[in-house]
Design goal:
By secondary structure, this protein is an alpha+beta fold. The chain folds into three domains: 2-290, D-Maltodextrin-Binding Protein, domain 2; 297-463, Acetylcholine Binding Protein, Chain: A (Distorted Sandwich); 466-588, Methane Monooxygenase Hydroxylase, Chain G, domain 1 (Up-down Bundle), CATH 1.20.58.390. Helix content is 37%, strand content 28%. The chain has 19 helices and 19 strands. The protein has helices spanning 2-14, 31-44, 58-62, 73-81, 115-118, 130-139, 155-160, 176-183, 193-201, 237-248, 261-264, 281-290, 335-338, 408-411, 418-421, 466-485, 494-518, 527-554, 558-588, and strands at residues 21-27, 49-55, 68-72, 93-108, 122-125, 148-150, 166-171, 187-188, 207-210, 221-232, 297-312, 317-328, 342-343, 346-359, 362-374, 386-394, 403-406, 432-446, 450-463. The strands form three sheets. Strands 1, 2, 3, 4, 5, 6, 7, 8, 9 and 10 form a ten-stranded mixed beta sheet that branches. Strands 14-15-12-11-17 form a five-stranded mixed beta sheet. Strands 13-16-19-18 form a four-stranded antiparallel beta sheet, with no helix packed on it. Strand 18 and strand 19 form a beta hairpin. It is elongated.
Length: 589
């Protein structure tokens, strides 16, 4: 320890030529943090003046008004939120960089492989690790109080004597204690799937990573705690930029072979996402200048459709009332820059911002939106048409290289049912019936090289047949029956026969004119218009049949007139029924 302190003192002296002076506070007693502090001091020499100071614990390191600290990210999150051992939140705490990680070593006797087998048992925990271990166990729904935690000088000797059933340590991957316990038959603690989910979601910044990525041997994954370089927001912007430039400038020298072990796993791509607090503005500016961190910012979109009304096929519009939630982790995106989204198919819209929250790794912003939206209604299959009611979301200022929207089919729980969970209980569609709901991610292209991510929430609705039967099919069939019934009037009653047939033809024309006034202007015939066409042909045949039949009767040729009546009736029925059946069958397939 004395040698490490001497090294840190020499590095601090070497940094004294810089323009900006900072206190870098480091908790004593943690070899991984001490090694990382040494690497930071080496790397930033000549860019920023760092005076390394050892403090007794993390609370003294990140408590305001400290300049700079290198601590476990769990402590930084607790300090920012005022949870855990922190009495009040440190809202001015900002992140400069995430610098490597420590491994959460958890070894237990072979017959006690999970948390359940450890309850009430004796485990050895280093005093400097107790708070981090308590945090991890708490998120896994097993507090440290459920165990008998003790501090021992030699965990290996205590394990050999049978005094402990488990051992926890947070530190470097190449722990000699872990190797010795493995030789004694101890096994790594196993986490159930639900415990893993709670640890990486609620317990952020705890993370699961492949063992090789953490510097461990063997296959599988392990639990780790990132190390966070944090500072107060009062640190000058230029100073924070200098720190990031020195650590992650050209060459990204943190990953060189001579860098301390934790720093070997740090890079510009992982240094700023996600972070336990907001990025310091100077650090954020430096990351943007140095280039993309690790691809575009991913924004998760959740939409709750509360109401849909006034589906108007004449104007190709409908009205929608919905709630929109955007969630993201990346500190490059703040609440102001996520907000200028556009509802791309909105004719009119009114947005009401609800709330913004930042909990752990997640930033969440909600809006209530009432909008009149445009659709693209295809009526070729009317009245058996189905229409897509879409909400299309796009960011007008950030290309798909900078921001992408992710829908629930990508990030949602497998138990989420969009139809059940994302539609309001009072949702109704008037003359339409609901079919399905789904979400899409697409890329919109403007010009040759401008690409933007677009999110679509799509409701598919189908027209109910009752209005069509009552308003269209029923009247047409009634008029056709009148025209066909005229065939059974005696030959000599030509006036009555023509009255019924011509009257039917005139009423059909009036019905179509009325329907055309209510329909949108389209360049293709609908199924209903085909029905009117077949009705015209049928009634026209009935009119022709009546005239020919009367002429034959006037010449005294009643047997031929009777055959004309029968064949004419059959032709009138078939000229409507056959093509109507064919069109219906084709449109329904």
């Amino acid at each position: 320890m004395r040698r490490v302190l001497c090294l840190l003192a020499s590095f601090a002296t070497a940094c004294a030529t810089a323009a900006h002076g900072l206190d870098l506070r480091v908790p004593a007693g943690d070899p991984a943090i001490l090694q990382t502090a040494r690497g930071v001091a080496q790397r930033v020499r000549g860019q920023a003046e760092l005076t390394v100071q050892l403090v007794h614990d993390e609370r003294a390191a990140v408590g305001p008004p400290r300049d700079c600290a290198l601590v476990r990210a769990t402590a930084a999150r607790q300090a920012f939120e005022g949870t855990g051992r922190y009495d009040r939140p440190h809202k001015t705490l900002r992140t400069v960089a995430m610098l490597g990680h420590e491994v959460v070593h958890a070894w237990v006797r072979a017959d006690r492989k999970d948390f359940h087998g450890l309850k009430g048992r004796t485990v050895a925990v280093r005093p400097t690790d107790a708070e981090t271990v308590r945090t991890a166990l708490g998120f896994a729904n097993l507090g440290l109080s459920a165990l008998h935690a003790v501090h021992v000088q030699d965990p290996v000797a205590a394990a050999r004597a049978g005094d402990i059933d488990g051992w926890f340590e947070v530190g470097l991957p190449d722990s000699p204690t872990a190797q010795a316990l493995a030789a004694l038959g101890f096994a790594q603690l196993r986490y159930k799937p639900e415990e893993q989910l709670r640890l990486i979601d609620e317990g952020w910044p705890l993370l699961w990573a492949k063992r090789a990525e953490l510097g461990l041997t063997g296959a599988g994954e392990a639990l780790a705690v990132p190390l966070a370089l944090v500072c107060d927001e009062s640190v000058p912007r230029a100073t924070a930029e200098d720190l990031v430039d020195a650590l992650f400038g050209p060459g990204d020298a943190t990953q060189t072979a001579d860098a301390p072990l934790p720093l070997r796993y740090a890079s510009r791509k992982t240094a700023a996402k996600p972070v336990p607090t907001a990025l310091h503005p100077g650090a954020a500016a430096s990351y943007e200048r140095l280039g993309p961190l690790d691809g575009p910012v991913e924004v998760q979109v959740t939409l709750w459709m509360l109401d849909v009304s006034d589906i108007d096929v004449q104007t190709n519009t409908f009205e929608a009332d919905f709630t929109l939630e955007l969630r993201w982790q990346d500190a490059r995106l703040d609440v102001e820059s996520v907000a200028p989204f556009e509802i791309m198919n909105a004719a009119e819209s009114h947005q009401t911002a609800y709330y913004y929250t930042s909990l752990g790794k997640w930033h969440t912003k909600n809006w209530r939106i009432q909008a009149k939206l445009r659709g693209h209604f295809d009526l070729r299959r009317y009245p058996f048409d189905s229409q897509r009611l879409q909400v299309e979301l796009e960011h007008p200022l950030k290309t798909s290289d900078q921001l992408v929207y992710r829908c629930e089919t990508r990030f949602g729980s497998p138990h989420v049912d969009l139809r059940r969970d994302r539609l309001g209980p009072d949702l109704s569609f008037g003359a339409w019936q609901f079919s399905r709901v789904h979400t899409d991610e697409v890329t919109s292209t403007y010009g040759q090289d401008e690409h933007y991510s677009r999110y679509r929430f799509v409701l598919t609705v189908e027209r109910t047949l009752l209005p069509f039967v009552v308003q269209v099919l029923g009247p047409l069939l009634l008029l056709l029956l009148l025209a066909w019934a005229a065939s059974w009037i005696p030959h000599e009653k030509i006036d009555a026969k023509l009255l019924l047939t011509v009257l039917s033809l005139v009423v059909v024309v009036e019905l179509q004119v009325g329907a055309a006034e209510r329909a949108p202007e389209i360049a293709y015939p609908t199924l209903t218009e085909y029905l009117y066409l077949f009705t015209y042909l049928s009634v026209a045949l009935s009119v022709a049949q009546a005239i020919v039949e009367y002429r034959l009767h006037a010449r005294g040729n009643d047997p031929v007139a009777a055959r004309v009546r029968n064949w004419g009736l059959a032709a009138s029925v078939l000229v409507f029924a056959v093509p109507t059946a064919v069109v219906f069958a084709g449109r329904l397939m």
